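2024-03-11 09:14:02 DEBUG pipeline.ingest accepted 1 chain
2024-03-11 09:14:02 DEBUG pipeline.ingest length=158
2024-03-11 09:14:03 DEBUG pipeline.predict start
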Amino acid sequence: MASKTISSIAKELNLSRARVYQIIDMLDDNERPLKDSNDRYVIDDSAVNAIRKYYANSNTKAKQEKTSPIDDKVLDIIRRQLDEKDRQIEKLTQLLSQQQQLNLSTNRQNEKLLDTTTNNNPLQDDNPSQNDDTDVLKSTEGNEVKTSKKGLFGWLRR
């Protein structure tokens, strides 16, 4: 029987020496290698096979756990939620589009109203003989008369 070292087994299986020791500790008593008088493991072919077998089984279990399929019920729930969110997004997009169109039409109507009010009433510059609506005191034949204040938006009240 050929005796192997922990290091050679670790190199074969591409593991660390510490992991090989962990695997040996997890083996059954009848598969575990014996120790010699110096407290070193005497690893024979049966122990090497037991270590490889344990490592292969633990590797496949880990892969199966990592790639476990998602439960169909959970997947269906997630799909229904995603469909509902898509419908909500579509509805909100439609409402936003309607709001933008309404704002645009309102702005156009406001511009038309402003154009018609400014065209119907002559401006101060067009008719300089007309009284300007300022709060400056005017003197007419010695009598001081104060004109009424119209304010910034006084032209809207005409």
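2024-03-11 09:14:41 DEBUG pipeline.report The radius of gyration is 47 Å.
2024-03-11 09:14:41 DEBUG pipeline.predict end
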